[in-house]
Design a protein that fits this description.
- This protein has three domains: about 45 residues, no CATH class; about 100 residues, 2-Layer Sandwich (Phosphorylase Kinase, domain 1), CATH 3.30.200; about 190 residues, Transferase(Phosphotransferase) domain 1 (Transferase(Phosphotransferase), domain 1), CATH 1.10.510.
- The protein has 14 helices and twelve strands.
- Strands 3-4-5-7-6 form a five-stranded antiparallel sheet. A three-stranded antiparallel sheet has the order 8-10-11.
- A hairpin with a 4-residue loop joins strand 6 and strand 7.
- Helix 6 packs across helix 14.
- It is globular and about 70 Å long.
């Protein structure tokens, strides 16, 4: 898992939401046609056809064969196996923090360690941080909540077993980038330590004691001014990332963490991609229910995929869940590709400003979709609450979930 999934419960399965995996480095092309007698799409592998027929009706395939094809293709190439979802590596091959057209020359392990010695804090972190609770465990290491003995604050510490990391240079790249990314609405990197005898890397990040926005979304009812507040704070972070050429690509309530003071911070940079100017990426990552149509249909995409996801996250805050949550991932992918903008059940109950905000986020035509900076000046955000107004909801969610307040 990258930085953000640090707070997933140890041993849990992360719920039923499926995630799309690392981008593939290859392309396979099929000549697909429809059999006039049977109605089947021909030219696809037999397992694809069986899967498609089991979850997408024949009528739906007839109405939108392209959407059915894109959905099953996306699903088969990119969906992660269940056992790999619990705890992703700190850095994965879908983290490409480099120019999209630049060929990466992989550093040797010796070169990586030489550079880590330069950028890491040379002190022993165990003299400053006292680990108090293990909150995650996987092949790449263990995540702890720790006390900072210097200022009596809490932090999140991930201990990474370097000998098990196949792409050590990507870890180096991410640390370099995160050291330069400090913003009040991002879960910020604090320090890194290389413990050479143990061959461990300790990465220290901010700890958000209010938990994920998901808890508030699912356990409480949010008012429009509170929704506007979360959208504004999230957009501050997205605007900052976009200004630096970074697409987050996995904006959702799970990746927005809260403080007990109501502070709102975006996390999970393992899915971030770096782009230069108007270059667009064609890799497929993220969580299907929040994905923009252009990602599912494998069109080239840019920064505005994050804007679509913010619109879907706003629907989460309105209705308690994203569209299609109870559909299978494959069927959700089909519905996104076929329908574009989802229906909103409580549309008529929303204020005109919120309706217009959603309209600006959920434009299928990318050129018509707003930018982060445009949304920050939207009237819906002008009357948002202060972050402290989120505190009662955070406490209520914790009480329902029986967590410490």
């Amino acid at each position: 898992m990258s930085f953000t999934k640090w707070f997933k419960k140890k041993g849990g399965d992360g719920g039923s939401i499926s995630e799309i995996g690392a981008p593939t480095n290859f392309q396979r092309h099929f000549h697909v046609s429809r059999n006039q007698e049977t109605g089947d799409l021909e030219g696809l592998p037999a397992p694809w056809v069986r899967l498609m027929n089991s979850q997408i009706t024949r009528d739906e395939q007839d109405k939108n064969p392209d959407a059915a094809y894109h959905a099953v293709k996306y699903y088969n190439y990119s969906i992660k196996k269940k056992e790999n979802e619990v705890f992703k590596p700190f850095i994965t091959e879908d983290t490409i923090l480099r120019r999209s057209k630049e060929k990466r020359t992989q550093k040797t392990d010796a070169e990586v360690y030489d550079e880590l010695r330069i950028i890491c804090n040379p002190e022993d972190p165990r003299k400053r941080y006292k680990t108090t609770q293990e909150v995650g465990k996987g092949a790449s290491g263990i995540v702890f909540i720790a006390g900072d003995l210097q200022n009596e604050s809490q932090v999140a510490v991930k201990t990474i077993d370097m000998k098990n990391q196949s792409s050590k240079d990507l870890i180096l790249t991410e640390i370099r980038v995160l050291k330069d990314f400090n913003h009040k609405n991002l879960v910020n990197f604090l320090d890194a330590y290389l413990l050479e005898p143990e061959d461990q890397l300790w990465v220290v990040m901010e700890y958000m004691d209010g938990g994920p926005l998901t808890d508030v979304v699912t356990e409480t009812v949010m008012k429009e001014r509170q929704i506007a507040c979360v959208c504004r704070e999230t957009l501050y972070a997205i605007s900052f990332l976009h200004a630096k050429g970074i697409i987050h690509r996995d904006i959702k309530s799970d990746n927005v963490l809260l403080g007990m003071d109501g502070s709102v911070k975006v996390t999970d940079f393992g899915f971030c991609a770096n782009i230069e100017g108007d270059e667009k990426r064609q890799t497929m990552v993220g969580t299907p229910y929040w994905m923009a149509p252009e990602v599912v249909t494998r069109k080239k995409y840019g920064k505005k995929v994050d804007i679509w996801s913010i619109g879907i996250m706003a629907i989460e805050m309105i209705e308690g869940q994203p569209p299609y949550l109870y559909e299978t991932p494959l069927r959700a992918l089909y519905l996104i590709a076929a329908n574009g903008r989802p229906d909103i059940k409580s549309w008529d109950k929303l204020s005109p400003n919120l309706q217009d905000f959603l309209d600006r986020c959920l434009q299928v035509e990318v050129d018509r979709r707003a930018t982060a900076d445009e949304l920050l000046s939207h009237p819906f955000l002008n009357d948002c609450s202060e972050v402290k107004a989120l505190v009662p909801n955070i406490k209520a969610a914790k009480k329902v979930l029986r967590r410490n307040v």
